[in-house]
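so my prof wants the structure for this chain in the tokens format not the other one, which i didnt know existed until like an hour ago. anyway here's the sequence
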Amino acid sequence: MADLSSHPTRILMFVAFLLTAEMAGRIGSEQTGSAPGRMKLYEGEYMVTGGGEDETATSSNLPVNSFRETWTMWRAENGYFEVEGDRVYESADSVFHNSKFSARLSPTKRLLSVTDYGKLRFQKDSGPLTCDFHAMDVHCTSNAKDPSDSVDVRLPLDHPAGLFTPLSPLSWSSVTRGMTMNSSELKQVQMISIREVSARDPVALEVFDGAVRYIHSEDFTTAGRTWRADRFEVKLPLHPKSTVWTSPEGILLAVSFGGGEGEGLRLQTFRSLVSPEMLTTSDKR
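here's what i got, hopefully its the right format
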């Protein structure tokens, strides 16, 4: 590198170049909405609907009384995916929730962890509740100002898992990932219900052992467009059979909690922020 110490003008020009490059990087990051090292891919909104494009009806089949979630997905440099968003819902026991959340997905879009930044119902000084999904268990933790109020619960797992409650669109797509397009294959899965019970037992985990089966590929219309969707059936004990539609990229399109295109969860708005040629093979099934 040339010696600039005897050339004040060159020094000033070099500093100006560095500042310009830094400013250009900041502007580019602001325009894409992405932090350095990750690429923003998609953004959208989910709602509980009454079937088709109707946004009104709900029923006892649904795990929530109402639900709306806005979200943005990024791909990190290491190939993993990050999701951030806001969700508003009323639980089945009529408790209102409004909080931000974040999640981390594997390169195949399987759920690895999810964090809810709302306060726990019976622990007002609690920090965010984070649940990490491992091969052998799910581990949920929440810190508190008083360490004795911290939450640390763990539940053994035998199969790929996701969240049943609170309602989690990422979980319903996650349990379908990695399946072959063979309708005779039955994949064992587990869905976790997080219940806030009491001050003595602020977080309890309940597991439902179920199974997923691939049905076929079909056209499915939602969020203002027609998708070529993969259709699955999910059966959980004590619950009606659910039908799940996902895009080839692993985006949840809809869940019907009674089979068919009835009441359930639906992708209402969607925007892809990258051109198809910028997607990698990990963005698809």
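also thought this was worth mentioning. The chain has two helices and 15 strands.
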